[in-house]
Protein 1
Amino acid sequence: MTRAFDKVQKDPNRVIIFDTTLRDGEQSPGCSMNLEEKLKMAQLLDELGVDVIEAGFPVASEGDFEAVNEIAKMVKHATVCGLARAKHADIEAAGNAIKPAESRRIHTFISTSPLHMKHKLNMEPDAVLEAVTDSVTFARTFTDDVEWSAEDASRTEDDFLCRCIEAAIKAGARTINIPDTVGYAVPAEYGAKIAMIFDRVPNIDQALVSTHCHNDLGLAVANSLAGVQNGARQVECTINGIGERAGNAALEEIVMTLRTRSDSLPYETNIETTKITKTSKTLSTITGFGVQPNKAIVGANAFAHASGIHQDGMLKNTQTYEIMTPESVGLTESKLVMAKHSGRAAFKSKLLEMGYNLGDNAFQDAFTRFKKLADKKKEIFEDDLIALIEDEVIRENEHMRFLSLQITAGTEGPQTADLCVMVDGEKKCVKVEGNGPVDAIFKAIREIEPHSEARLQLYQVHAVTGGTDAQAEVTVRLSEGDKFVNGQGADADTLVASARAYIHALNKLVRKRSSQNPQRMQEAATP
Ligand code: KIV
Ligand code: ZN
């Protein structure tokens, strides 16, 4: 009996939330995270109350293996899962990576649709069926908790799908996942597929049925819920709906729909919904993938009421236009926290209260930056401190550290950047002209540390709080070959934040170059 199976046995309306932000989400272009960032997200997912964390695809690279392994050591409540194709090497890597976890799962998959079997696998259906039995049987030698997925299930013929599922359960799979891999299904059809499985697979009572829906037609959440209404008791989803192409079903939308519409969808999850906003924001900051302002649940406008009629209704009774409260997803006003005259002790105790325990050097740098910020900005909010501290924490022990920047800009060129940085303890300064101040800064960094193969993919600025004196939070995404990295920087001066963000991204690229396994299996990285 697996942990998930047990939970559903005790409460038949319990829906297991299987989060794949760190696997299906992370593998989409531009969303890659380093080890530190994955650990931070895994910690937040565990606190959020997800039942299963799919932590990665261990065979894909040494970095993926290490991330799954470190997450397995750290996670306290959730089951930690590693993905594997129907190959012994994959399954062995997944089994070894998840070993330290208290509750561990191997998720193994193979394509079952005629299109995939012929063109992707070049395998006959009987060989696929054999691979199902073989892979699940082998996975069970590492753990009792094995999930089997029929990739492209929504385009698989019913008879063959049922035979594969029956074989997987017979071999020991305790979760059967039905992916709509290409986001092709529509809700009634996807729901009917799940119902058909319950009708036709004789041993289906020995496993949980799971949904895994992609959002190519914008139907991932609707399809997942149709699956639940027809008996599925696990939903695979990601924070902010990140994932391949148009993404996966968004965790926050699934969970808040079940909670808000429990009258017609009487199902429960274990999610502590007040932690949704923090988890969503952290992911956006790490990946540089902001959510659209009108995104359900976590968009900036999701709880904003702009029109006069709506505001009037809200003042009379909030339920006129609000079906859930902002507090229920953890959206609270950023508190005013510090003033210009706040001292070192008050600053330290505020940081501790917010969960930051910085080392001496980082604390000193953060305090100096806080004082400078307080000189420029009348009011310092919690969000300002979070931006400042996150910026400081990510900079500890970096190969290149920002020191100072002077810019000349305006209509009469040339625009120049006069930049000083520390590179491995040595101070380096350059003065460079550019096509505008941002171009001049990035050129200056490139002059100090040439990296001609790298391409700038994204440069994004957003204000941490309101007001013209708000801090800017800048995200820079660089790519080099198949490697993508995101860097962040925050400062009251947008150009300083830009320099910090670019340096942060470059440091990550340098680290990635030296840590990556040259044998990385590219096709393995994109199941
Ligand atoms: O979309 C998909 O089919 C997948 C499988 C690996 C489960 O992500
Ligand atoms: Zn997927």
Protein 2
Amino acid sequence: MLITGPPGSGKGTQAQRIAERLDITAISTGDMFRTHVMDETPLGVETKRYMDNGDFVPDSVTNAMVRDRLQHQDTSNGFLLDGYPRTTCQVDELDDILAANAHNLDVVLQLAADDEEIVRRLLGRARDEGRSDDNERVIRHRLELYREQTEAILALYDRRGLLVQVDGCGDIDQVTDSAMSGIETAKVRQGT
Ligand code: ADP
């Protein structure tokens, strides 16, 4: 399955909880990039400036990293991708990877949150965790990219009958419960 939502919608937190309940592997492209940046790998050196500016890392780089990650054994029981795909090019790549591995998507979960709530939450996180891309200018830019590019690809998943929308603004447990019931409904709908 996929989980998507604007920056600050809590998708990282929910991804961990949902993956645990479903006993599948959570894979966050944002976390993978941050680990590379921290470890100063060649990939980290290349991607840092994009992340600091709130820009997408180029598709070719992101696609190669995800393709490689999805070959690992821990994904054979199912996986939850957090933060990928974000562009139409990434959707095509994922379709291709899934077809090659004989996997299907069951659900695309979208967490909704409004812009001002997002900015408020992320400025709070900036104070608490010091993430280098959590300042107001970069937050607004990440939000703009999400609204312009990532939301556009959700229409496509909706046409495939995969999209489930959940309000990300309640308390953490409440959001997890709504997400789990949305996932169950979607799976029943598809007979999986
Ligand atoms: P958020 O959704 O809060 O912006 P993430 O932790 O998911 O944060 O991602 C952080 C950064 O990592 C993004 O701003 C972008 O630079 C990079 N990134 C993560 N996933 C992708 C992706 N699928 N395509 C391009 N860049 C990505």
Protein 3
Amino acid sequence: MGSFAQFHKRSIADRDNFWAEQAKTIDWQTPPQHICDYSNPPFAKWFVGGTTNLCHNAVDRHLKDRGDQAALIFVSTETEQEKTYTYKDLHLEVQRMAAILQSFGVVKGDRVLIYMPMIAEASFAMLACARIGAIHSVVFGGFASHSLATRIEDASPKVIISADAGSRGGKVVAYKPLLDEAISLSSHKPKAVLMVDRHLSEFAKVDGRDFDYAQEREKHLNAQVPCEMVESTHPSYTLYTSGTTGKPKGVQRDTGGYAVALASSIPNIFQGKPGETFFCTSDIGWVVGHSYIIYGPLIGGMATILYEGLPIRPDGGIWWSLVEKYKVSVMFSAPTAIRVLKKQDPALLTKYNLSSLKALFLAGEPLDEPTAKWISEGLGGTPIIDNYWQTETGWPILTICNGVEKAPSKFGSPGKAVYGYDVKLVDDQTGEELTGANQKGVLTIEGPLPPGNLQTVWGDDARFVNTYWKTVPNKMVYSTFDWAVRDEDGYFFILGRTDDVINVAGHRLGTREIEESISSHPNIAEVAVVGVADQLKGQVAMAFAIAKDASALGDATACLKLEGEVMKVVDSQLGAVARPSRVLFVSALPKTRSGKLLRRAIQAVCEKRDPGDLTTMDDPMALKQIQDVLG
Ligand code: AMP
């Protein structure tokens, strides 16, 4: 333990030596020759000349010391399965999966799309890709055919790995029909689709394209597939995320930088140690799942719990019972999940022995004070540690690095800038840095981005530069698109997005994507979607639409019918995760005279706030109508 201020300062001022030290915590086949190549900003290349492999660092290198220890603990309260895979077991399963991929002709650099529920095979699939140098692209199982199709189109995978179905709250959600539709919508066709059949839902097989995982696995039971050592800068995966435009961006991650960043974060941020258990309740479809269900804990030699199910089924004590049973030392969840648990019997928090738990980390959305206090008190004072980051960054930007130096948390703040991140608040108009306390600015990171952050947008370097980077006096800064202030002690407070992205239960959604989907309904002429504050989910999407044929809206029942139809369109195209909480009908939408939708004014009215300066508004009655339909 040392001083965090010094640790952080060194990571910026003596960047290469700092990261050269951190790089020693992973295995390299060839050690890096050049720590950071930033000769072509804003593209940063980390650990140039080094060759390594993510799967080797997550699995193989632990075989000697902890081969018989737990690596992956799969728990499904949906199918009542519970199975522990040791590092040796995981090694075998990953090689079998890798051999199957190779039998389909997958080689280094090929993309493999993974559209799967939270089952052990999903982790075998990710690790198998990393093992052979293939680039995985996991698509969240809650996304539907249209979302999936845009990702298939962009990633052009040689193989897709999927399953017959997921299950949520005891309800089977069939994946295969959505996958088949997505493939038919996409101009790119995969060579093979590998199906894990859980026998939850019958599905049609396409001859010559679809293969059964169990049958293929049988053919490769004794597979020995060595790790393909790749350059540090070789892409390990892409993960799609939403932004201002309707088209999701493929965030591209490297190999060496990511491995080093995660390896360093386990002790320094999460205080995790080899042999302990990490329980992250996210989903492999999100970045938190990539970094802290799969790669981070395994690189750190820990056991990781992969959980399929709800936090309140069979009862609200299920997660805590797992903490007791598997002696979880690090737990990672999202504020929404805790708000769900808050509605359960508080005695469930004290029923289990939670003495193994060092801290509960929460991320993905703002952590409100009542939720933080409730869980902190309920867990008998276990530290609750907020952390702020993004799909793009791969690991936390702001938090309290208790593994470096213990420091207090402040309610409402995710903490200070993490080592490696040169965080600057800038004025959104002038780009000037705001150095005073409590000044509101855009949270930016001065380049080069630290290891583990996105390399570029898949297949679109120009989009990477144009979307994220701004040249402010003398330097290039990466924009997080979040407003923030920093107090006199260096603690940041996040104040919301600067763009049209909303955050529903920790899921990042683009309002434009939802608008595009709603507009595809034949009777919708125009629509505006905004994020509205919600007690449980943080935010929910609300839609205000203009019908092409207003006669279809004769009475309340007719409006409800069209609302239901629109929701179905969103469900089937994007997935229930993007479904607006309400679709209300109006005859005009508030716009500026130049025709720009005034989403912020609509949002303010929905949240019963002052809509602010409306002098540029074209038709004031449009906002009045929004107020009226809200009732
Ligand atoms: P995602 O890329 O899906 O992880 O979403 C990233 C966005 O979620 C950030 O840009 C923030 O707007 C929000 N976010 C993530 N973590 C936090 C946090 N701890 N506090 C407040 N907002 C957060």
